[in-house]
Design goal:
The strands form three sheets. Strands 2, 3, 9, 10, 11, 12, 13 and 16 form an eight-stranded antiparallel sheet that branches. Strands 1, 4, 5, 6, 7 and 8 form a six-stranded mixed sheet that branches. Among the domains are: 46-68 and 244-411, no CATH class; 141-231, no CATH class. The chain contains four helices and 16 strands. Helices cover 19% and strands 28% of the residues.
Length: 412
């Protein structure tokens, strides 16, 4: 008689129950791992997008003031066609008039201009930043430059600004500005925008196939004429301004990624068109909550930055100005005067509040406030302000403040 034994029904039920519990635990852990992986993927994706978009902003910041004239010929009142940006009643940034940030044709342009967001001005009271230089446009011509030196014999090879040898050179038909530059001890002291008075006060030249026209050529020994490309050929009959202009701002478009908090917008770069003064939009980074601009100034011109100022030079409190005996009026005057701005602006800092990844109910933002700037400069978001703008669940988002810093070398 065999003595074989099997499992009882109770043993099988207990075993199956344990097996089901193990499967449920494994499924829960797996689901959690997948969720974390997805969150990390979205966070990394946002970081990569931010790196690319913010690098464009950094490059433009570094170019602020590049190729701008220090002086405009005394016949500046005769300049024709210099009108810069036009007023846009339907411009989507609250309280900002693009035309109010223009520079007068009779004065040198400023390399950087900004509006301080407050009250009903700016998306989430974000600042508005304008960068003026020849290179901020998105065309190949704006990246080209050349020079012409004086040669009493007339045929100076350096003066042959357009060639057919390489596309990197200025080409016939492209539009450029020309400035007469003077140096003392190897330091550039003057950069005068040249104007063709005989042809209606034209401040630009259509690049010729050989040499510059007389109005844009060196006149005497020691003269050096700098040529900066502005806009491609065959796009218009003239230039609107003797430089290019890029505006940076945050706004919320009609369509944004679903992962973005409803209170966030998009960081945009827009360029001013030479044909009509309008704008062309370029979205850079999604899920942006705020942008703040801070200037570091050398008000006593001792070579070291000692004054911090907000976007328009009117900080809300004297504690935001660290130099002794410096008033808000002094700072505002500096930011609005092209020569003082070149002398005193040492650094531009831009702080951007960005949402990283999607909402995560298992995550809780650890701090009760977020500083978009430094100390009392820029803006400090309190917990109540975050909740009012980004909703009661704002802590379920990962927030990051990017800092973009530029030494204002091209302003000097």
């Amino acid at each position: 008689m065999s003595d074989k034994k099997g499992f009882t029904l109770i043993e099988l039920v207990v075993t199956m129950a344990i097996f089901v519990i193990v499967i449920m635990l494994s499924s829960f852990v797996f689901e959690k791992v997948i969720g974390q992986a997805s969150q990390r993927s979205k966070t990394i994706e946002g970081q990569l997008e931010g790196v690319v978009g913010l690098e464009i902003l950094r490059t433009d910041l570094d170019s602020a003031g590049y190729g701008l004239p220090f002086k405009i010929m005394s016949s500046a009142t005769k300049i024709s066609g210099y009108t810069e940006a036009v007023d846009s009643p339907n411009f989507p940034v609250p309280g900002v008039d693009r035309a109010s940030l223009n520079d007068a044709p009779a004065t040198p342009p400023r390399g950087v201009v900004s509006v301080n967001g407050s009250g009903s001005v700016g998306f989430n009271q974000s600042d508005y930043l304008v960068i003026k230089s020849v290179t901020v446009a998105l065309n190949d011509t704006s990246k080209k430059s050349s020079r012409v030196i004086y040669n009493k014999m007339g045929a100076d090879p350096v003066g042959q600004i357009a060639t057919t040898g390489t596309a990197d050179d200025l080409q016939p038909g492209e539009r450029a500005i020309v400035m007469r530059s003077t140096f003392e001890g190897g330091i550039e002291k003057s950069r005068e925008l040249l104007i063709d008075e005989k042809n209606g006060g034209t401040f630009f030249v259509t690049v010729p196939s050989t040499f510059l026209p007389t109005a844009f050529s060196p006149k005497e020994s020691g003269d050096t004429c700098l040529i900066y490309g502005i806009d491609p050929a065959n796009t218009m009959s003239s230039l609107r301004m003797p430089f290019n202009r890029a505006d940076y701002f945050v706004k919320r478009p009609a369509n944004v990624p679903k992962i973005c908090n409803a209170g966030t917008g998009v960081l945009y770069k827009s360029t001013t068109n030479h044909n009509n003064g309008g704008i062309t939009y370029y979205p850079l980074v999604d899920c942006i909550g705020d942008m703040q601009v801070i200037y570091l100034l050398d008000m006593d011109e001792d070579g070291a930055a000692g004054t911090y100022a907000d976007a328009d030079g009117t900080p809300s409190g004297d504690e935001k100005i660290s130099d002794i005996n410096v008033s808000t009026v002094d700072v505002v005057t500096t930011l609005n005067d092209p020569e003082l701005l070149r002398l005193r602006l040492k650094e531009i800092q831009v702080y951007i509040l960005a949402q990283m990844g999607k909402k995560d109910n298992a995550y809780r933002y650890p701090d009760d406030s977020i500083v978009v700037g430094v100390a009392s400069r820029g803006r400090t978001w309190t917990a109540s302000e975050m909740a009012a703008t980004f909703g009661a669940e704002w802590r379920n988002y990962r927030w990051k403040v990017y800092k973009i810093t530029s030494i204002a070398s091209n302003m000097q």
